[in-house]
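[job 4471] stage=fold_predict status=RUNNING
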Amino acid sequence: MLVRIALLTLAVIVFFASSVTPCIADREYTLSSASIAFSLPKGDDKDNDTSVSVYVKTMIDEEYYTLASRANFAATPNPDESGTWEDPSPHDYVYDLNVNSFSYSQVGALYTKIRISPNGNDTVKFGYTVTLKFTKGSGKNKKTKTMTQTRSGIELSESNTTYNS
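[job 4471] inference complete, writing structure tokens
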């Protein structure tokens, strides 16, 4: 009889403990969106047939993990975006990135890889800002943290297609 009462008590404790534990999104900031903004210095552009790929990573336990990415964008014939980045650029060229599920506490230093795939000759000089947004909670209790990485003075071409921060 004592064993049954102990087991029943344990089951009740486990039930109530699990039912009041908030989900991870309520306790911790989780990656909810990411974007990259490209800016060009005066005197340069990106051809409309040069595509761009971006991978934003962090290192966890000596392994790289992709936080956000987008492959082969910013080139015509994508009907949703213009392929050419014109000079002088009066604005940044901003693109949303696809995100993976990571918490703010897991993210250390950001490592960004940008690769262009030119069709023929193209030299692209640019700077960028990656913005990662982490949220927790919902509704009026929703809170946000932001992490950014900004670099400038980058030059990629058909003979040097990849940049690593």
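[job 4471] summary: The radius of gyration is 23 Å.
[job 4471] exit 0
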